[in-house]
Write a structure and sequence with these properties.
296 residues
């Protein structure tokens, strides 16, 4: 494990803490500025695209097969983040898989509370199908809040009778807003996402809404009939048990699911991929999984 690499990254981040008290606009600017210098994968063409009024982007590796597509939903607690801030993950996912990635944008809280982000995420999947992509050649992926959106979109597609994507890859998905998982107590002060931060995200997106509503907390709903899922999470995460519980419940519902628990890693360690061995290894693992599950 690259403990020294991770410690150096966290120490640097501690010198530039999030401006929580300044509101969501300041948080967005802080996160974009923090991620802007992060190198992205070489040889990936970035093509801006507007979908339903939102600025998305395609990331195309050389020689990518026609038809295959990975839809990527970025994290950020439903209040910040963008395809640009998460380009390090999306571009390396395109590199590692050899498949084009569509990095999707969605409306942000608190200006646009639940279900705005979930509606937008589902709209992107419907748009992709309307463009003629076969569902069996499409994967849904996401990190943190984006992992929630990816899983929620698959469940909503199933319930709507739409063809399902071939597979899902979820990186540290945020799924438990009621703090039922043991890690929410054991890791309440974990790096990057802790209990106060999680409460802020939940208050802005859900307000006084039901924290166990399956529409926003798919752990609480029917997980049957979903495609194969790869889930990755760090052992040093507030959200660790969101992933552990998800895989248990997917298997109990008859699904195919695999869990990778990255020892000693913090939340969203893939964002540090150029500087952290486990970050790049995680994306490489996701890329291999996607290559194996997307149809020609």
């Amino acid at each position: 494990m690259s403990k020294e690499q991770l410690n150096a990254i966290l120490e640097m981040g501690a010198q530039n803490p999030p401006p929580v008290m300044e509101g969501p606009g300041a948080m967005r600017g802080w996160f974009e500025a923090m991620m802007e210098p992060t190198p992205v994968a070489d040889g990936i063409a970035v093509e801006p695209m507007t979908i339903a009024g939102h600025g998305c982007e395609f990331l195309r590796p050389a020689g990518a097969p026609e038809g295959k597509l990975i839809i990527y939903y970025h994290g950020g607690g439903f209040i910040f983040g963008s395809p640009r801030s998460h380009r390090v993950i999306a571009s390396n996912l395109a590199r590692a898989s050899g498949i084009t990635v569509l990095s999707a944008q969605y409306r942000m809280a608190p200006e646009h509370p639940y279900p705005a982000a979930h509606d937008d995420a589902f709209a992107v999947y419907r748009w992709v199908l309307e463009q003629g992509h076969a569902a069996g050649s499409v994967a849904l992926c996401g990190d943190s809040a984006g992992g929630n959106l990816a899983l929620g979109t698959a469940v909503r597609a199933r319930d709507a009778g739409l063809p399902l994507p071939a597979t899902l890859v979820l990186l540290s998905p945020a799924l438990d807003f009621a703090h039922d998982g043991a890690s929410h107590a054991e890791m309440a002060d974990a790096p990057l996402v802790n209990l106060p931060f999680a409460e802020m995200f939940t208050a802005m997106y859900l307000g006084d809404g039901d924290r166990r509503d399956p529409g926003v907390a798919p752990l609480q709903g029917d997980l049957s009939g979903l495609p194969p899922v790869q889930v990755q999470v760090g052992s040093w995460e507030f959200l660790r048990d969101d992933s552990v519980t998800l895989v248990q419940r997917l298997k109990a519902a008859g699904g195919e699911a695999e869990l990778t628990l990255w020892e000693g890693m913090c939340h969203n360690h893939q964002l540090f991929a150029p500087f952290l061995e486990e970050g790049m290894a995680s994306i490489d693992s996701a890329g291999a999984f996607l290559r194996g599950h997307l149809k020609a």
